Amino acid sequence: MDSAELEKRFRSHNVPLGDIDTMEWLRVKAQFFAEDILDRTPESREQSLALTKLEEAVFWAIAGLARNGSKPRPCVSGNSNA
Fold first, then answer.
1. Closest listed residue to residue 61, CA positions, set 41, 33, 42, 37
2. Domain ranges in the chain?
3. Is the pLDDT of residue 82 over 80?
4. Which of 56, 54, 69 is nearest to 23 (CA)?
5. In 3D, which of 24, 8, 9, 5 has the Cα closest to residue 70?
6. Could you read off the pLDDT of 56-78 as tens digits, one per residue?
7. What's the whole-model pTM score?
């Protein structure tokens, strides 16, 4: 790992304006999944770990957006919902 990579990892990053919707989408989807975990599993260490790992996954996904930007979304022709 070189110094440029270290700088990229440890400096402050803002999510680009164009990626705010993606960030919010990730958070909403994760919250729905977290609610399902709470509804369908017993309160336990395992449940707590599942929620923690989900929180970590969202954290890293958003960090990826901030550091690298989002992937281009494919354009689907003929789809009125796009």
1. 33
2. 16-68
3. no
4. 69
5. 24
6. 999 999 999 988 888 776 665 65
7. 0.75
Measured between alpha carbons, how far is residue 77 from residues 18, 21, 71, 73 in Å? 22, 21, 18, 12
DSSP 8-state secondary structure symbol assigned to residue 76: -
Alpha helices in the chain (DSSP H): 3-10, 20-40, 45-68
Task: Report the C-alpha gap between 69 and 22 in whole angstroms.
Answer: 10
pLDDT in tens, 9-51: 888 788 888 889 999 999 999 999 999 999 999 999 999 999 9
How far is residue 57 from each of residues 27, 30, 51, 54, 77, measured CA to CA in Å?
A: 10, 9, 10, 5, 31
